[in-house]
Every structure is written in C-alpha cells, then in structure tokens.
Amino acid sequence: MFAAKKPFGLMDNSFQSAGKYEGIKQLVDYFYDAMAEQSVAQKIHAMHTDADLVRRDKLTRFLCGWLGGPRLFAESYGPINIPKVHAHLNVTESERDAWLFCMQKALERMPYDEEFKVYLLDQLKVPAERIRQMSQVAREQRSHTAD
C-alpha cells in the first residue's frame, strides 16, 4: 500500500499518496485497461484516438501535475486546458459517467488508502464535469453556426 499523506490536496500530498509517478502510471494503465474491457466505455474508448502509449503517457503526466507533483505534461506536450482540448468531442453525462466508472475500476485495483481513493474519485468529478459542460457549449455553438 502507498503511504497516504494528509491532508490530501495540500502541496504534493496527493501526488505522494498516489505513489508518485510510478503509482500514477499504474493507475493510468489500469484505467485504460478498464476502458478497453468495459462495455459501458466503448464510446469513450473510441474517442481516445492517440496511440495507446501516447494517451497513457499524456494522462500520467497530466495527473502528476494535477495532483501537486511535477508538471510533466507541460514539459513534454506544452500547456493544456483540459475542457478546451476535449471540446470537439461529444461528451454527455453518459460518457462522463463511463469515464468515472473506469477510473473507479482502476482505483479499486490500486493499493491506495481507501480514504484517498474516495477523495481522488471525488476530485476527478470536477474536470470530468467541466469537459462535459465545454462539450455541450461547443455542440450548441456548432448547431447555431449550422443554421
């Protein structure tokens, strides 16, 4: 089990609690494995068009920084605005929930403190919802320009 550092969300406590880079990489691998295996995730799995290793690397690097660790995503890929990057996708409540379901499945496999698992999934709901909202705005804008 990875040692939990509390309070989560303070400085790099979440990054440490997630097992640093190696723990986050394992979580991401479990997440994408769940996405490929779960029938509820077929649509979101198809949305991830990057090569498998690239998308895993991108999410691992993003989560490292998002959890208070080193900003590895920006070092490799440049700045990112998660909702805007996903705005072109059709993300509804169903896709958001499927993504979170796969993350929950991945978290179940991780040797994290149970309190940290709950905390992390709850925190991930925020960007997941922002992606859904941005996708909805983009869909509405596209429908207005198509008129």
Automatic annotation (TrEMBL):
Gene3D superfamilies membership: Globins
Protein biosynthesis in keyword set: no
Top-rank lineage group of the source organism: Bacteria
A UniProt-annotated Pfam family: Bac_globin
Protein name from the UniProt record: Hemoglobin
Keywords attached to this entry: Heme, Iron, Metal-binding, Transport
UniProt-recorded Gene Ontology molecular function terms: heme binding; metal ion binding; oxygen binding; oxygen carrier activity
Family: Belongs to the truncated hemoglobin family. Group II subfamily.
PANTHER family the UniProt entry points to: TWO-ON-TWO HEMOGLOBIN-3 (PTHR47366)
